[in-house]
Amino acid sequence: MKKNILFIIPSLSAGGGEKSLINLLSQINYEQFNVDLFLLNHEGIFMDYLPSQVKILSLPENYKMFSKPLIDSIKDLINAGKPILALNRILFSLEIRRTKDISKREQYTWKYLSKSLDSLEKTYDVAIGFLEKTSTYYCVDKVKAQRKIGWVHIDYDKLGMDPVFDSPYFDALSSIVTVSEECANIFVKRFPTQENKVKVIYNVVSPSTIHEMANQTIESEFEKKESEFNLLTIGRLHYQKGLEMAIDACELLVENGFNIKWYVIGEGDEREKLTRLIEKKGLKNHFFLLGLKANPYPYLKQADIYVQPSRFEGKSIALDEAKILQKPIVITDFSTAKDQITHGVDGMIVNMDGQSVADGIEKLIINGEHRETLSDNLKKLKLGTEKEVEKLYQIF
What residue numbers bound the domain in which 231 lies? Predict the structure, then answer.
């Protein structure tokens, strides 16, 4: 008899966690498992990549009204005879304005948002909140399941969340999955009573799929000219990703006479700020925000160097993908960097500032033999992690 599994994630719009879920779902044995998926947003660039066997659950009508812009939401809820929910919608907006930190904002607004979400009628064998915060809260508060699993994709201490808020939710979980040993160590230091629940499951990446998708056609905006060096970064336009350091590094490299084009694939709330910084530094012909790309691999294939200037990461899927396509890599020394790169062997780890990022890139541009050595070393690595799904079955 098949087990009934539920995955929960806010959306499939963009991001490493979202891509990680798509990759994981592509490896599930659907002869053994019925898989449902709960999303708060049914749009996104990864929606088309969902396996056909996955059933997307419909959204409650209350939530559809609640998620509208404030005035429209209040009108619809009042007209539907739901004044208490309308009040919660107002309190939800006030909390958003009051709480400046984005991570804490998502935590503290849950008590209002949750009022618009009914508990699911179906009982599952396993329910999985696949991202921090809302996914976990929904899993604990709104789902009936024999086992409940939370998933932590990040260095918990760097995300800025309130651990006091999260603690009772982690208490209610059967297992807590992290994506690297370092993420697990950080989590256990913060929540020592949860140590026995913590398991490490690496993000699922498939080299064969990545190589196949990398051969698709690419937009002309990224075509490489012989005299240019193409740099690529993949990630949300968010403080975490340190893109202002990338812009600073780009400015230094251009000043030093290097003919570079630096492309960023991703979208986020810092686009306007980063665009202003690019214009201020006169880099409109050198630094490009390409937005979201459902298939970033043709861009990655054509890049000369992959750069990840993050302030913190869990286990970066983009780094795994760059390694699979054997790209010379420069990353900053975030807490989990050494989980993914051995400095000087399969990439370079530099200090977390624009000058150091520029210096690392400059060394690779100048030293073609070193670039080739890094790429050759990556060819020798076994980078596929499709079998990680077996660890999840063991938790089931």
Answer: 207-379
Angstrom distances, CA of residue 2 to CA of 130, 165, 282: 21, 35, 59
Return d(Cα 67, Cα 75) in angstroms, integer. Answer: 12
Determine the pLDDT at residue 58. Answer: 95
Residue 224: what pLDDT?
Answer: 60
Distance of CA 293 to the CA centre of its chain: 14
The average pLDDT across 366-381 equals 87
User: Looking at residue 268, what is its pLDDT?
Assistant: 84
Q: Which CATH number characterizes residue 282's domain?
A: 3.40.50.2000
Name the residue with tokens 């009108």.
75
Dist. CA 378–CA 382, nearest whole Å: 9
For 43, which DSSP code? -
Domain shared by 249 and 183, yes or no: no
3-state DSSP assignment of residue 145: strand
213 lies in the same domain as 147: no
Residues 6+ apart with CB under 8 A from 244: 274, 277, 354
Cα separation of 74 and 86, whole Å?
Answer: 5
Specify the amino acid at residue 109.
T
- For residue 23, what is the enclosing H or E element? helix 16-25
CB 129 within 8 A of CB 138: yes
Count of structural domains, the chain: 2
Spatial CB neighbours of 7, under 8 Å, sequence gap ≥ 6: 21, 25, 35, 36, 37, 38, 128, 130
pLDDT at 346 over 90: no
* pLDDT at position 43 over 90: no
The answer on 340 and 194 residing in a single domain is: no
Is residue 312 within 8 Å of 152, Cβ to Cβ?
no
In this structure, the answer to whether residues 12 and 148 fall within a common structural domain is: yes
Residue closest to 105 by CA, chosen among 116, 96, 92: 96
Q: Bigger pLDDT: 207 or 113?
A: 113
Contact 262, 246 (CB under 8 A): yes
Express each pLDDT in 263-286 by its tens digit: 999 888 889 999 999 999 999 999
Q: What is the pLDDT of residue 235?
A: 87
Judgement on whether residues 199 and 251 belong to the same structural domain of the protein: no
